[in-house]
Design a protein that fits this description.
This protein has 191 residues and is α+β, with helices and mostly antiparallel strands. It has two domains: 13-134; 138-190, no CATH class. The protein is built from two helices and nine strands.
Length: 191
């Protein structure tokens, strides 16, 4: 089990005491080894056990986050999360910018859940859903002018926005075509 004072740990099944925890993490860790081609290494994976885990085995949850980054901008664009507890795994966007401390929003399009008594089956489902999100292409659209810049990151397969920044850091529209479109991630060909 994780030390109570440590918020984040790498995925190490030896640190869990519950057999289901160990099996879920061990299975997921095996899948992560295949994700190096997607820019995900074991050192980029975080997990957290909630506070109630310190005092009780009842209600434990393993939360695992995988970041999608723009390395050129040194920015985290999105954390995809898998929460596992009592035979239920939920996968979705972490709305807390990687702090992993709020429930997942079931209204988001990438949200998925799966219930199965086997932790291995739950981990395989989580891995499949996470990998699908990691393979989605991401672009950065940029606009530049005198004393002005604006950048918008989006999934290029759907146009869904991932974030923005700009001179006044306000959301903008009607900017016309971007001055530059930069591919941030595109791993579709590695499928």
């Amino acid at each position: 089990m994780s030390h109570p004072d440590e918020e984040y740990e790498h995925l190490d099944p030896r640190e869990y005491t519950e057999p289901a925890e160990k099996e879920f993490i061990a299975t997921l860790k095996l899948r992560v080894k295949d994700w190096a081609v997607l820019g995900i290494g074991e050192d980029e994976i975080t997990e957290i056990l909630p506070e109630d885990r310190k005092t009780s085995v009842v209600g434990w949850k393993v939360i695992v986050g995988f970041a999608i980054d723009d390395e050129e901008e040194n920015s985290e664009l999105l954390t995809i999360r898998a929460d596992y507890s009592d035979g239920l795994v939920t996968i979705g966007r972490d709305e807390t910018s990687g702090s992993l401390d709020a429930d997942l929003d079931s209204s988001r399009p990438e949200y998925a859940e799966y219930r199965h008594p086997s932790p291995r089956a739950c981990a395989e489902f989580a891995a499949m859903q996470i990998e699908r999100q990691l393979r989605r292409p991401v672009e950065c659209h940029e606009w530049h002018g005198p004393g002005f810049f604006y950048k918008r990151w989006l999934f290029s397969d759907t146009g869904e926005g991932l974030g923005f920044c700009g001179t006044d850091n306000e959301r903008r529209s009607n900017l016309g075509p971007p001055d530059r479109i930069r591919v941030v991630r595109d791993f579709r060909a590695t499928a």
